[in-house]
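S.,

Sequence below, as promised.
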Amino acid sequence: MIDGDSLTVSQKGDTVTVRLTSIDAVEYRKDCGRADSSRWSCGHDARRALEQITGTGRLHGELAAQDAYQRALASSRTRPFPDGVDLGAEMVRRGWAVATSNAYFGEEAGHREAPRHLAGQLRAAGRLARERPLCLAAICG
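The prediction came back faster than expected:
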């Protein structure tokens, strides 16, 4: 695991860095603020959450593209579609990541009151512009 939205996997003997599509999570070394002004290692916790969701078994993904950092952009599941757990959806559902496309907006709505909700942290850091209107998945991805 790298952080809450990126992981390293082995594919046919090669190591591949995968960035989960349609979500954004805090970076591993990021600290977050609490209402009482204390800090907590939210980046470490987000990575641990992704580790828990993925477990130790095989992952199944669908490559979407490659980003500027040479990471494979992909959706990933714990079992082949339609079975298993969609890693991006589950990270958003649990409040460890926010949706960046229509794909997971429904999951995000369900955790607005979760104590570990990170959307405010990401917006405050200027990493997420969710104040945009909803768009069609076919246009915006």
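Strands lie at 6-11, 14-20, 23-24, 32-33, 39-40, 60-66, 72-77, 98-99.

Coffee later?
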